[in-house]
Amino acid sequence: MSGMRGRIALLVFVFPAILLLSLAASGANGFANSTRGQAHGPPAPPPHVNPGEQNQPPVVVASKPFGESYLLCEMFAQLLEAHGIAVTRRPGLGATEVAFGALRQNAIDVYPEYTGTGLIAILHDSVADSLSRDPRAVYEKVSQAFAARYGVRWLPPLGFQNTYAIAVSRSTADRYDLRTLSDLAREGSHLVAGFTPDFMGRSDGLPGLARVYGIRLRNVRPLAPAVKYRALADGAVDVADGYSTDGLLARYDLVTLLDDRHFFPPYEAAALVSPRLVRDRPDAIAVLTLLSGRLDETRMRRLNQRVEVAGEDVHRVASDALTELGLTNAPVTSATSLASDTHEPFWRYMWNRRATIGALTLRHLFLVLIALGAAILVAIPLGLALERARTAAEPVVRALGVIQTVPSIAMLAFMIPLFGIGTVPALVALWLYALYPIARNTYTGVRDADPGAIEAAEALGTTAVQRLLWVRLPLAAPIIMAGVRTAAVITVGAATLAAFIGAGGLGEPIVAGLALADTRMILSGALPAAALALAVDGMLALVERRVTPVAG
Amino acid sequence: MSESQSSPRALAAHDVVHRYGNVLALDGASITVDAARALALVGESGSGKTTLLRCFNRMTEADAGAVQVGGSDARSLPVITLRRHIGYVPQDGGLLPHWRVLRNVALVPKLLQMHEPESAAAEALRLVGLSPDTFGGRYPHELSGGQRQRVALARALAARPGVILLDEPFGALDAITRAELHETFQDVRRQLPMTVLLVTHDLAEAARLADEIAVMRSGRVEQQGTMSDLHAAPATSYVAALIARARATSAHLIPTP
Q: Judged by CB atoms within 8 Å, which residues 104-143 of B form the interface with A?
């Protein structure tokens, strides 16, 4: 009987142990700190290094997942590096709640934010009419409130506003004679809108717009930011929300409608800085402040277009911008910083990024295997325990099932107050998702294993432990493995969202590609992720065949 | 035969009561089986015969009354020890599907830490008419229904228990296979002295394999005796009707006084 015991040991102990060991080898050196905006190679060596700052932790520079935010993040990062300050990049964090949640906990140190967003989405303040036309007043208000409430500081504004813009296609504008939001209110009953869910919910979004202008649209569809302009250009919707400095507006030849009643508050862009940075790093704050007042709307729109329309590399655009502004001596000329040539064939695009994609794939695998291994170690014993305590089984399994229904992005957002951002919260979230299929299959597999055989084994004098090890577990092994395979595929998929909280992996190019409407960039993450799911599933299928007791 | 052969032990149940929730499965059932004798429990589905059988290896615990094995209370021994010394054959065989035949049959010898479990298993296979060389390495799903029940019987016998419990062991087999197994079982009984308790709904099978019959109805034993006793002096009209019906269908199997 030692043979079967060996197989069980393989399933229950050795397999996760191998996973963990292989991870210790591949993952322990940490890709976490090497994740980069577009992940195109190492940063340029800083022009000078101040030895006194060497033992300071790096400044964590982050962004939200849209083009301008990526670009500003990269500019902050390069500017700091140019002054010898070590930087860790965490671009593309979920959304306002994720990025700001991380900042106030010092999980990140700086990211570009907009005063209007701070006022409404973070302070949940209503837009007072007295404020609505005065950028200065809004900046003063958020500065004071953020310092008092969160210890977070707004550096002086960068010099441009990026307000909400309501956009229509040129043909729609001509057909209905639309130039202002008041015009839109007049023609609203003919028009279908595609708005981001964020815009539909915020008081400085659709609800306020409807109240102030009396806009009633024929239909409003929630659309993801990545597809809304495309939908607008293709005529699937007539109206969409956007950002006034958005390069994609030009790419799709869209017309923004004038806010003739000054509904939208000022959205001045500025660096938002963590309490840690305020306390410990006056040097970094001084460097970041060099950008204040230096970026006007014309320049910003032009830079955004280079990224979002011409498809140029964020790294390169940021470097050029800093050089133009005289803030760095020489442009960053990194061999791996590839300008994206839109005529480059797809295979070549992938091939040129093979090192990055390989690193991201390993990083992804690291997240998946750690989370899955930990889930196996917990969920199989849990499933076995539930079989012994069946009255508890259904409630527990159902509770794990409820976790499964929490949308990944919400789960990741819940993790931030508990674990900050980065690898740990991502692993915890992925682990929670992987528990359910494994625990459920272990429980039902062990419970439903050949009742006749188990009854006979009991009647002939086996102990409960012997029945578990000799009968229940071997008979349930294929079902348990099916649960592990389900969990593995779910985890590979969910891990792409880990990029939203700065854990890296193949989600990084997916998130960035969605933000920049760059299909190839999305595919450079999505294709390896799909291949990884197949590979992990295939590996586990081999394990499943090994632990299946009888080829019946 | 083997020096580890347990001597047959008498079985007795006195006024045993057992409830499944609100259902009274045993309502004061009593039987006695002398050592090395065979008793068949017959009756309709739900009459309590399987429940009574399972009281002897304590797969079912009596709520009231006494269950004795070898003259002492079944509860005086640790339950694991008790079960390892009582053979058991369920209707579906209950073989472990992922174990080869020899390993299945060696289960109890192994549990009892006998010297050579595999040779005890091989001997038991020969006893039920299966060649260990041919069948020892097969999986249960590679066997016919009759072969599976032979293996189940061999597993129950491998450690040479003094008592064997059979719960409709041949009920799912076709008539020819069943007849072959009846012969095998009778051969085994001639070679191995042991006390047998057999549950069956087939009175002809009971007459053929057992020395005595206990007729059960609604959780009680209506009458226990030899076939001739039941025929000559049925204790109740139910017993009389049962005998009459059985004689009508298979008269040749039931001896007349």
A: 107-108, 110-111, 139, 141
